[in-house]
Amino acid sequence: MRKQLIFTNAIMSSIQIALVSIVVFLLYKFLLNVIGIEQLGIWSLILSSTTVVAQAASFGMTGSVVKFVAKYIARGEEKIASLVIQTAVISFGIITGCLLLISYPLVKWILSFIVPAKSIKIAFSILPFAFFSLWFMTITSVFNSVLDGLQKVYLRNILMISYSLFYAFLCFLFSPKYGLIGLAYAQVISNFVFLVLSLILVKICFPIFPFLPYKWDKNLFKEIINYGLNFQIISITAMFYDPITKALISKFGGLSMVGYYEMANKMVQHIRALIISANQSLVPVIANLYEKRAEKVNTVYLTNYRLLFFISLPLFTLIIIILPLISVLWIGRYEKIFITFGTLITLGWFLNTLDAPSYFANLGTGNLRWNVIGHIITGILNIVLGIIFGFIFDGYGVVVGWAIALSVGSAAIYISYHITNGISLKELFPKDSRSMAYLCIILILFSFTIHLFSGIQEITTITLIIIISGLLLIFPQIYNHPIKNSLIIWAKELFNKG
After folding, report:
1. Where in the sequence is the domain holding 82, given as residue range(s)?
2. Which tops the pLDDT comparison, 19 or 456?
3. CA distance 430 to 419
4. Is the dihedral of CA 303, 308, 311, 317 positive or negative?
5. Were both Cys, which of 3, 227, 256, 262 would link to 44 (CB 3.0–4.6 Å)?
6. Are 404 and 439 in contact (CB under 8 A)?
7. Are 139 and 229 in the same domain?
């Protein structure tokens, strides 16, 4: 595997997330003005509830496709790789479609308990569109996994950017005229177009694959399912993440809180994805490496972890510091719910981000046991803590429970990886990043203190002062960090080869 291809995939992943984040920021600001925070909360609940069905039907096929396409191409067996893709598309399409039909009445029944009576009619009206759009997207996810397995992640990223722009355009077009139902129209149309374009792109990149899948192999299906069972457990436990959290927030805090949670969570996840998407491009690389030089996997892991810690720490610190300013720019005012949710979510996702190198290393090697255990821990804790804290602290307590659950489940993955592979736990807190970590903690506490004793009207000025202070404190740490020099040298080598 050429280093330049890895670098291109990682860079394009980051560019894709950055552009999509901008689109989401503008789209949500527009939707707040057009349909309001409560209807945005309804849309969020509907999408979460339908996603549960797709996760249950997936059997981990998308993760299996990345693994086996990369595996068989590394072995020079392109025809088998093509058969893997066809088998996955046919199986996934039929299973998901059937389960969506069967579960439709159940989802309506569940929504009747968590959506307020005044909003239930509009929720039911957009549910069929959500199911259709989800079916298109689940099949599309197989083709996207093929591009990952072919190590053409940069092409998938270009496709995702195009999809986001097209979807946003349709939302801007339909929402003012049709309201919430306009979002449903936009989702169905854009997801169908995305499916067609993904199929065409796979055909171009992998000509041996037929334009329309028609072959199905029983033995490959078993191989995909057996490997994917761990992914399936992960998918099932993932059902207890976003959908359950939103349902509990709706129950204990109301639809407005769901809307603000959706905005805060979406914002943090998009910023986090700048890092994670680049990391994910290493899955097929590790799969290839594991087939040929397994002893190198831990070296790749440690380098990846140190780099991730170095990047994530200042990035997530910055998110927390500028939340008040984001609230003013995005929502139009200082919104306490959004800022509180954003802070809690950011802390949880930071600790989750640190498990990315071990998580993706496990995916590449096929050792998924602790990935599964980590997801189970997160799912169970999210339900238990969400209910307990929800009764005590309403919607705020639900989000506190989610942040704790996410942090503990993630820690189980990276701690177990170190123990299993004989890597010192001290490496989880890299020595060359410790002084920067202490400064980030001081900066966050300083930010909280300043905002606590300042007026809301001074938010912009205060945030700028804190950012400048943070740069003065942390920039020298970043500039003198050993890994920074390694990155520069690596980048020069890549461009010189290119």
Report:
1. 1-239
2. 19
3. 16
4. negative
5. 262
6. no
7. yes
